[in-house]
């Protein structure tokens, strides 16, 4: 069973690294997905670096339309997961 953790993010460069690592440390078996919701800062670059450095399962999606609803819709369309 594939379980995915979805984290929408908008301009989270100050906290995204710690947030990803907190979820990863709590559960290394499941997938983590960040949906960068048109951030204007370095959220995408930092998240990408953390995924690469720690070999975290999952990935980073980009959604240009603002709003958590758009970010979550993007995730549900792009991610194949049971939960």
What does this structure look like?
The protein has one domain (4-78). Helix content is 41%, strand content 20%. It has three helices and three strands. The chain has helices at residues 16-26, 43-54, 68-78; strands at residues 4-9, 31-36, 58-62. The protein has a three-stranded parallel β-sheet with strand order 1-2-3, with helices on both faces. Helix 1 packs parallel to helix 2 (43-54). The longest helix has 12 residues, at 43-54.
Can you tell me the overall shape?
globular
List unreliable stretches of 5+ residues. none
Query: In which order are the strands of the major sheet placed?
Result: 1-2-3
How many β strands by DSSP? 3
- Rounded to the nearest angstrom, the distance between the terminal CA atoms is 8 Å
Strand content: 15-25%
Described by strand count, sense and barrel closure, the largest sheet is:
3 strands, parallel
Order of helices and strands: EHEHEH
Number of domains: 1
Averaged pLDDT: 97
Q: Count of helices?
A: 3
What would you report as the Rg, rounded to the nearest angstrom?
12 Å
Based on helices, strands and strand pairing, what is the structural class? alpha/beta
The helix content, as a percent range, equals: 40-55%
Explain briefly what this protein structure is.
With 83 residues, the chain is an alpha/beta fold. It has 3 helices and 3 strands; from the N terminus they run βαβαβα.
List the helices and strands and how they pair.
Layout: E1 4-9, H1 16-26, E2 31-36, H2 43-54, E3 58-62, H3 68-78
């Amino acid at each position: 069973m594939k379980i995915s953790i979805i984290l929408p993010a908008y301009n989270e460069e100050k906290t995204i690294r710690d947030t990803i690592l907190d979820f990863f440390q709590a559960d290394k078996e499941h997938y983590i997905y960040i949906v960068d919701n048109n951030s204007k800062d370095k959220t995408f670059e930092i998240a990408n670096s953390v995924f690469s450095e720690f070999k975290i399962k999952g990935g980073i999606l980009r959604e240009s339309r603002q709003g958590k609803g758009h970010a979550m819709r993007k995730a549900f369309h792009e991610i194949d997961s049971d939960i």
